[in-house]
Amino acid sequence: MRIGGLTAAILLGLATLVQAAPLNPEVVAGDAKWVAHLDVDAMRESIVVQKAYQHFVEESPIGRAAVTMLDVSPALIGMDPRKNLHGITLYGSRIGKHKGVLIVFAEADQKLLTESVKKARGYKSSTHGSYELHSWTHKDRRCERPVTGAFYKDKVMVFSGSEAEVKAALDVMDGKKPGLICKVLAAEAPAGTTALARVVGIAEAETPCKSKLAKEIESVGVVTGENEGQSFLRVKVVAESAEVAKQMGRVAEGVRALGILHAIDHPKDKQLVEGMKVNIAGKTVTVDSIAPAEVVWRYIQINIKQHEKKKCERSKK
Fold it and tell me: How far is CA 170 from CA 101, 173, 177, in A?
């Protein structure tokens, strides 16, 4: 992060950095091709998220077990995510690769976490300037992979599968390397945004996916959240040509038309459909959807119950 020489400017800069809230482009490397961000503080204020969490805890055995784990989480992971976790940012410079940087904004017991990770398999430590880097081997059901982590100041943790990427991320946050300048990735999100994901350079990327459609898309952005009791979702796609954008827009309009037909027999879903708008401008297709949060939750709740009913029926067979 670029900070000036004055003490007041430094303090202001650090205060801005540790407030997770919206995506902060200054903590993302300038060569990033994709970025994702969860604003956990905004999620706590969301009606839909609150009701979903309540339903999960009250109706699901897994949810009740999760609460038990969260109750003891300060002793296990040095923080209670329900109170201490503020946001998560992920980014990477390559598309389609399991590589990138994870930044966690949280108040955590750094001493406890450090002592715990020192017991991990293959642990070793190194330094980068004034920072101590911790590396170990993480093992799950699928594979083993290296992980490197470091604490940045008091409320920020940086992780990656690459020690070099952690070092580079620390340099970005210290202002030694440029932060994000790509206008598509760094675009300001609407107030109340809880989650966003953006990708650029899709058409030129070398990915395992051989989809012809992917080669016709330059960038994709998805933003969702809630503001003043209204849930919103925006999907923005920039195609390689106006013709491709036109065809994609027609598909989106077709989905909206199907929704209108569905609402004839399901009038409670009418507000969801009415709030969906499709706009095609040159090579850009934008789909905006907005509806009262209570309506969105009701729709989600109905789908949850239908899923649980089908799951129960399958278990009886």
Answer: 11, 5, 9
DSSP per-residue string spanning the chain: ----SSHHHHHHHHHHHH--SS--GGGSBTT-SEEEEEEHHHHHH-HHHHHHHHHHHHH-HHHHHHHHHHHHHHHHHSS-HHHHEEEEEEEESSTTSS--EEEEEE---HHHHHHHHTTSTT-EEEEETTEEEEEEEEE-SS-EEEEEEEEETTTEEEEES-HHHHHHHHHHHTTSS-B---HHHHPPPPTTEEEEEEEE-TTT---S---TTGGGEEEEEEEEEEETTEEEEEEEEEESSHHHHHHHHHHHHHHHHHHHHHHHH-GGGHHHHHTEEEEEETTEEEEEEEEEHHHHHHHHHHHHHHHHHHHHHHHH-
Asked whether the beta carbons of 124 and 117 are under 8 A apart, the reply is no
pLDDT tens, the chain, 317 aa long: 333 333 333 333 433 444 446 899 999 999 999 999 999 999 999 999 999 989 888 888 888 888 888 899 888 888 999 899 999 999 999 887 778 999 999 999 999 999 999 999 999 999 999 999 999 998 877 788 899 999 998 899 999 999 999 999 999 999 999 999 999 999 999 999 999 999 999 888 776 666 777 889 999 999 999 999 999 999 999 999 999 999 999 999 999 998 888 888 777 778 888 889 999 999 999 999 999 999 999 888 888 888 777 877 777 76
The type of residue at 129 is G
Q: What residue type is assigned to position 126 of the chain?
A: S
Predicted model pTM: 0.86
Question: CA torsion angle for 273, 275, 280, 286 (degrees, to 10)?
Answer: -110
- Rounded to the nearest 10°, the torsion over CA 52, 223, 81, 57 is 10
Bridge-partner residues for 23, per DSSP? none
Closest to 1 in 3D by CA, of 31, 26, 35: 26
